[in-house]
């Protein structure tokens, strides 16, 4: 229906043209044949892509000839075909799916799956075998009822009782012809069925008599038992089954495309709802929905402008739309694909409630820290490995989500390598790391008293000195022995080099970095270990329940190559543990629920972030594993330190103060001093602490105190020489500020 204003406008234009025949009409006659031939000879590159190629406009041609800047400019050539890679290019860029399933490629996974199947059927056979006498007795007691049901059913069949409602209906309609027809049909059926019943009775009685007279005793018993059990089965009640299920299998509904589309449509995402409102799916499946481990996997493309993170933000709604528990629904992004490619994995059971396979290292086995070791399982129940060497790790979570248990698990893995030297620090003070520390640790402390901080700081200073020694040893080794300038398993096997692995685990590490007196030095040492330690065989694992910039310095979090993030509450904490912009990329540990204990995002082993569930090892089992590791160390002769009751040697330098030592070697009259002069004097003051320091080491040690080196000019042989140095006033100001804060605290 046209609008009245449009009709009036058309009438006014016609009236004006009739009144002034010389006025331009706004159009002209075009020879379409000439226009088509001209366009085919010289295609117009400025034509708009939405114009009809079969109709040409003289206005467009004149615009091209006059080069009018306001003329429409064509972006796509009207006769050009869709550009893209050729056939070979598409084949080269194709992603080939695995011919052999993943679980068949791994011998460990095949063994695990085979063990599950064997245990399932062994349990079922044993369950029913033990209860078979009860089943037989129950069927025997039900046999009379079954016999009565059998006789009654036979009599009803012979009497053609199933046709009685039809005959009664004919009587109610008073249709005599139909009733007589049905009666004759019934009579024929009854005669035939009576004959069959009589013959069956004589045959049955004859067979029973023959078995009674001629058959051996065992066959008679089997026959009577079979008939009794059959009659008992016929006599059972619907609500009282004789045989109960030995195993309650999950009753998860098969995932179908309709269910997926229904769930996506319930998320409230406008682009998906608009597409489905117009009769489209709103989700383009790129692969069939298939079984993937103990669950279903669906993959496809979301509408333009919709990202995987939009779906992950609505995970609870998605679970509601799928009618599945929240722990069964795991939307994920596809690495190396666009942000709209969604993989939806829906498990048969909640991940937090699924029974995990037995940990291979729980009862036997040793570890080579230079090789992967299983520590967790993914949603599909497959093992996920971790190689503890060449990494520095960060574990973050809110309290009571399994952070300390995960750290203890990693330390147990390190303990199973008899070459590893363990340093464990439980700053929470509850003794969660005691099973490892008491059994095998070289240094161990639990608590946050002042002496605990001093003990840990002295140990960290010793480790930093060991770091420098190892760097010199690696640099001195021949290239054919150490081609990559890092510690290898072969080098760690040589006690003469002293390059055995050193693994340091710190729970509630924020206590270190927030200490008013030693926090800056702890930060400086740990930052150095995170950056340079992996190549020298030193591994630092830090766990905190407050993953913010103060509790987990950015110099440490930014350089940690392995990250475990259990449930956190916000974007800041998420990115502090998993890396900058992880939250925007859809890697969000905020989506974990309170029941997802031990479930975390794991970044490491050269893979993108993935969801895993760490192995649960309680304190009792941890102590047993640690004692097994201790026995291996005693046999190898590598048990030392705290585990043997040996305390670190106390020295005057154990509680040194760098700033106070600088003031001691730089008199008040020297306002500015070269760094090389300072480190030389410090080495004379405390050789066991400052031996080997250079200007770079001094600058790194002063940085946590907020002191930067400056250019200091000195006249040497009549010439001014500028070198890096320090200003004594900066040292005194830093001491005054530090002591003031300490007093205020």
What does this 3D model show about the protein?
This protein is α/β, with parallel strands linked by helices. The protein folds into 5 domains: 4-66, no CATH class; 107-234, no CATH class; 257-347, Threonyl-tRNA Synthetase, Chain A, domain 2 (2-Layer Sandwich), CATH 3.30.980; 384-644, P-loop containing nucleotide triphosphate hydrolases (Rossmann fold), CATH 3.40.50; 656-744. Helices cover 46% and strands 13% of the residues. The chain has 27 helices and 18 strands. The chain has a 10-stranded mixed beta sheet with strand order 7-6-15-14-13-8-12-11-9-10, sandwiched between helices. Strand 14 (599-604) and strand 15 (607-614) form a beta hairpin. Helix 10 packs across helix 13. The longest helix is centred in the first third of the chain and has 52 residues, at 107-158. It is elongated and about 140 Å long. It starts with a helix and ends with a helix. Mean pLDDT is 83; it is low at 39-66.
Write out key terms for the chains shown.
10-stranded mixed beta sheet, 5-stranded antiparallel beta sheet, 27 helices, 745 residues, alpha/beta, 18 strands, 5 domains, Threonyl-tRNA Synthetase, Chain A, domain 2
Provide a quick synopsis of the model:
The protein has 745 residues and is an alpha/beta fold. It contains 27 helices and 18 strands.
Low-confidence stretches: 39-66
CATH architecture of the largest domain: 3-Layer(aba) Sandwich
Instruction: Write out the strand line-up for the largest beta sheet, numbering strands in chain order.
Output: 7-6-15-14-13-8-12-11-9-10
Number of helices: 27
Per CATH, what is the topology of the largest domain? Rossmann fold
Termini distance?
Answer: 82 Å
Looking at this structure, what is the CATH superfamily of the largest domain?
P-loop containing nucleotide triphosphate hydrolases
The CATH class label of the largest domain is Alpha Beta
Strand content: 5-15%
C-alpha geometry: elongated
How many structural domains does the protein architecture include? 5
């Amino acid at each position: 229906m046209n609008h009245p204003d449009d009709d009036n406008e058309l009438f006014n234009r016609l009236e004006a043209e009739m009144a002034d025949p010389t006025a331009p009409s706004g159009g002209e006659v075009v020879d379409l044949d000439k226009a088509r031939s001209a366009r085919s000879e010289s295609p117009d590159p400025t034509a708009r892509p939405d114009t009809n190629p079969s109709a040409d406009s003289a206005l467009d041609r004149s615009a091209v000839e006059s080069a009018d800047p306001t003329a429409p400019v064509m972006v796509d050539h009207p006769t050009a075909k869709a550009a893209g890679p050729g056939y070979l290019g598409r084949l080269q860029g194709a992603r080939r799916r695995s011919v052999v399933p993943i679980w068949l490629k791994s011998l460990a996974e095949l063994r695990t799956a085979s063990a599950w199947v064997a245990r399932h059927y062994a349990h079922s056979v044993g369950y029913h075998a033990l209860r078979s006498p009860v089943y037989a007795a129950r069927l025997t007691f039900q046999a009379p009822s079954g016999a009565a049901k059998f006789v009654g059913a036979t009599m009803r069949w012979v009497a053609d009782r199933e046709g009685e409602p039809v005959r009664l209906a004919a009587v109610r309609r008073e249709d005599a012809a139909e009733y007589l027809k049905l009666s004759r049909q019934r009579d024929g059926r009854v005669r035939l069925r009576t004959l069959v019943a009589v013959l069956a009775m004589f045959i049955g009685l004859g067979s029973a008599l023959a078995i009674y007279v001629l058959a051996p005793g065992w066959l008679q018993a089997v026959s009577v038992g079979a008939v009794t059990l059959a009659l008992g089965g016929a006599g059972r009640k619907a609500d009282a089954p004789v045989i109960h299920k030995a195993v309650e299998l999950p009753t998860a509904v098969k995932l179908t495309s309709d269910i997926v589309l229904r769930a996506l449509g319930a998320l409230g995402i406008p682009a998906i709802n608009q597409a489905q409102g117009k009769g489209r799916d709103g989700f383009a499946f790129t692969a069939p929905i298939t079984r993937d481990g103990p669950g279903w996997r669906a993959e496809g493309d979301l509408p333009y402008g919709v990202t995987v993170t939009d779906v992950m933000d609505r995970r609870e709604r998605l679970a509601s739309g799928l009618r599945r528990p929240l722990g069964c629904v795991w939307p994920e992004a596809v690495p190396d694909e666009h942000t709209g490619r969604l993989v939806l994995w829906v498990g048969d059971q909640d991940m937090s409630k699924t029974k995990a396979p037995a940990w291979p290292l729980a009862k036997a086995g040793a570890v080579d820290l230079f090789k992967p070791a299983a520590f967790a399982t993914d949603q599909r129940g497959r093992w996920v490995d971790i190689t503890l060497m060449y990494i520095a790790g960060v574990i973050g979570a809110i309290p009571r989500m399994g952070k300390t248990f995960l750290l203890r698990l990693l330390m147990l893995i390190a303990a199973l390598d008899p070459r590893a030297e363990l340093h464990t620090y439980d700053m929470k003070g509850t003794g969660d790391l005691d099973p490892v520390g008491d059994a095998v640790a070289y240094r161990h402390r639990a608590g946050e008293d002042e002496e605990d901080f001093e003990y840990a700081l002295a140990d960290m200073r010793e480790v930093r000195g060991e770091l420098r020694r190892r760097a010199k040893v690696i640099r001195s080794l021949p290239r054919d022995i150490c081609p990559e300038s890092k510690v290898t398993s072969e080098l760690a096997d040589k006690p003469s080099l002293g390059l055995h692995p050193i693994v340091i685990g710190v729970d509630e590490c924020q206590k270190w970095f927030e200490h008013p007196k030693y926090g800056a030095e702890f930060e400086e040492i740990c930052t150095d270990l995170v950056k340079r330690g992996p190549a020298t065989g030193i591994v630092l694992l830090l766990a905190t329940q407050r993953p913010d910039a103060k509790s987990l310095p950015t110099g440490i979090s930014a350089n940690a190559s392995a990250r475990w993030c259990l449930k956190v509450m916000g974007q800041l904490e998420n990115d502090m543990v998993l890396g900058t912009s992880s939250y925007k990329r859809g890697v969000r540990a905020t989506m974990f629920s309170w029941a997802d204990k031990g479930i975390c995002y794991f970044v490491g082993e050269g893979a993108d972030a993935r969801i895993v569930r760490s192995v649960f090892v309680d304190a009792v089992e941890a102590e047993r594993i640690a004692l097994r590791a201790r026995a291996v160390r005693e046999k190898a002769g590598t048990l030392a330190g705290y585990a043997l009751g040996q305390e670190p040697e106390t020295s005057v330098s154990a509680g040194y103060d760098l700033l106070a030592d600088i003031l001691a070697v730089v008199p008040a009259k020297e306002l500015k001093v070269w760094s090389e002069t300072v480190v030389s004097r410090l080495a004379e003051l405390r050789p066991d602490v400052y031996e080997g320091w250079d200007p770079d080491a001094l600058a790194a040690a002063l940085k946590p105190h907020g002191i930067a080196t400056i250019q200091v000019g000195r006249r040497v042989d009549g010439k001014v020489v500028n070198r890096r140095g320090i200003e004594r006033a900066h040292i005194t100001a830093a001491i005054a500020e530090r002591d003031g804060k300490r007093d205020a605290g």
